[in-house]
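Quick review question:
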């Protein structure tokens, strides 16, 4: 009985993980977001500042790749790259 219970729990956890991964993927695709790299933002610092401001103003996009990349680029630029 214990083995069957563990199998059911493992299957439920796997299904939940797969569902979460698909939801994240679908959310990124639905946004139609063109993800720019940290290097691109370092080379285009005005766009990095604009993106960072947009991320600050809109909590819904704060977890996006562009928010993370623009912030990282600004940190690199501010600290001098090292």
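Suggested answer, residue by residue:
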């Amino acid at each position: 009985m214990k083995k069957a219970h563990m199998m059911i729990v493992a299957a439920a956890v796997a299904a939940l993980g797969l569902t979460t991964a698909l939801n994240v993927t679908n959310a990124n695709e639905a946004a139609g977001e063109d993800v720019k790299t940290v290097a691109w933002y370092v080379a285009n610092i005005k766009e990095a500042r604009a993106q960072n401001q947009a991320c600050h103003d809109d909590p819904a996009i704060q977890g996006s790749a562009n928010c993370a990349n623009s912030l990282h680029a600004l940190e690199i630029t501010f600290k001098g790259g090292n």
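Why it works: Residues 1-32 form one domain. The mean pLDDT is 79.
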